[in-house]
């Protein structure tokens, strides 16, 4: 019988039988899949799980702290947090091509994860949040590229080079099942039902060259948008929503003064499979409120636009 509780019981037994008394490493990203694996492994093997959380500096507002609060503080899981913002910003300096940025971020992510994982010398296993759709996707390509991409962007680590064996307790589960298990394991609802967030993070939501100043402005605008979506009970009605930073200046007036500041675009879509998507028809009054809040509360942004492009032809992300 498929109940979250039964699945958890079976997984716990399978994990214990597999890893025995060994130590396991997990790359925690804050996303649903790695979070559920973390909670599951902790339940199965307790202190023999060590998580590595690489904070790229390209995460959303307070996201790094939230990951630490949930896992380290509330659940008592061992999490090593690596603050790598400067390394990522340096590596991205002067780079504006989206695919180039993705490559740089993915590569550096794996490099940093490997550095840290390499210090945990008694580990024998690397846990990954691979779910059934990832398995299918990689089966379709000879090289297993989808899995490589997933592991680079979402979980990190190269098990072959690190001499680690893989443990993938979600391999047979669909996303919805993973979520139910997450709730049953006590993960917060907001974490389990969070919109997807791309591995390269704000690196592909800041158009062109990534700068710390841009990331800070974007984080604040994005947080206002998401905050209001939640407050108006619209968050769960859209599949994905976020702000995009446009490094373009536009003129505005505020009080007696003239402003010449940056532009932010809001994107919200409804989709089932993320292959096609409709732009979310959010209420005008709601968009008005979000726009006013962003312009009033985020100095440096003087104009807000709403993206009304469907996919196809437009992709969900801008880069
Ligand atoms: P697009 O922009 O291709 O996005 O319509 C479809 C879904 O994929 C996510 N996405 C990514 N996820 N690494 C990721 O892990 C990436 O480089 C990446 N690019 C897009 C996007 O957020 C959306 O959910």
TrEMBL record:
<keyword id="KW-0436">Ligase</keyword>
<keyword id="KW-0658">Purine biosynthesis</keyword>
<comment type="function">
    <text>Catalyzes the synthesis of GMP from XMP.</text>
</comment>
<keyword id="KW-0067">ATP-binding</keyword>
<comment type="pathway">
    <text>Purine metabolism; GMP biosynthesis; GMP from XMP (L-Gln route): step 1/1.</text>
</comment>
<keyword id="KW-0315">Glutamine amidotransferase</keyword>
<feature type="domain" description="GMPS ATP-PPase">
    <location>
        <begin position="2"/>
        <end position="194"/>
    </location>
</feature>
<dbReference type="GO" id="GO:0003921">
    <property type="term" value="F:GMP synthase activity"/>
</dbReference>
<protein>
    <recommendedName>
        <fullName>GMP synthase [glutamine-hydrolyzing]</fullName>
        <ecNumber>6.3.5.2</ecNumber>
    </recommendedName>
</protein>
<keyword id="KW-0547">Nucleotide-binding</keyword>
<feature type="binding site">
    <location>
        <begin position="29"/>
        <end position="35"/>
    </location>
    <ligand>
        <name>ATP</name>
    </ligand>
</feature>
<dbReference type="GO" id="GO:0005829">
    <property type="term" value="C:cytosol"/>
</dbReference>
<keyword id="KW-0332">GMP biosynthesis</keyword>
<comment type="subunit">
    <text>Homodimer.</text>
</comment>
<dbReference type="GO" id="GO:0005524">
    <property type="term" value="F:ATP binding"/>
</dbReference>
């Amino acid at each position: 019988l498929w109940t979250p509780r039964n699945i958890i019981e079976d997984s716990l037994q399978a994990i214990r039988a597999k890893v025995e008394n060994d130590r396991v490493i997990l790359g925690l990203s804050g996303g649903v899949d790695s979070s559920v694996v973390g909670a599951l492994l902790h339940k199965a093997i307790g202190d023999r799980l060590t998580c590595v959380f690489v904070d790229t500096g390209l995460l959303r507002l307070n996201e790094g702290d939230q990951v630490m609060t949930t896992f380290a503080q509330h659940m008592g899981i061992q999490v090593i947090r690596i603050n790598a913002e400067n390394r990522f910003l340096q590596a991205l300096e002067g780079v504006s091509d989206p695919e180039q940025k993705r490559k740089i971020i993915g590569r550096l992510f794996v490099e940093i994860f490997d550095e840290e994982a390499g210090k945990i010398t008694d580990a024998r296993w690397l846990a990954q949040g691979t779910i059934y759709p990832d398995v299918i996707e990689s089966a379709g390509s000879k090289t297993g590229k989808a899995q490589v991409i997933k592991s680079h962007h979402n979980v990190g680590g190269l098990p072959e080079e690190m001499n680690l064996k893989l443990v993938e307790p979600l391999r047979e589960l669909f996303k919805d099942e993973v979520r139910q298990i997450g709730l049953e394991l006590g993960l917060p609802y907001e974490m389990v039902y969070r919109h997807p967030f791309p591995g390269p993070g704000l690196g592909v939501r800041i158009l062109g060259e990534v700068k710390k100043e841009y990331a800070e402005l974007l984080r604040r605008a994005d947080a206002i948008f998401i905050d209001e979506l939640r407050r108006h009970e619209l968050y769960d009605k859209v599949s994905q929503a976020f702000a995009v930073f446009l490094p373009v200046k536009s003129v505005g007036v505020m009080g007696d003064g003239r402003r010449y500041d940056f532009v932010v675009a809001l994107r919200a879509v409804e989709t089932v499979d993320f292959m096609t998507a409709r732009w979310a028809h959010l209420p005008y009054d709601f968009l008005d409120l979000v726009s006013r809040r962003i312009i009033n509360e985020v100095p440096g942004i003087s104009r807000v636009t709403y993206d009304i492009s469907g996919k196809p032809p437009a992709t969900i992300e801008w880069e």
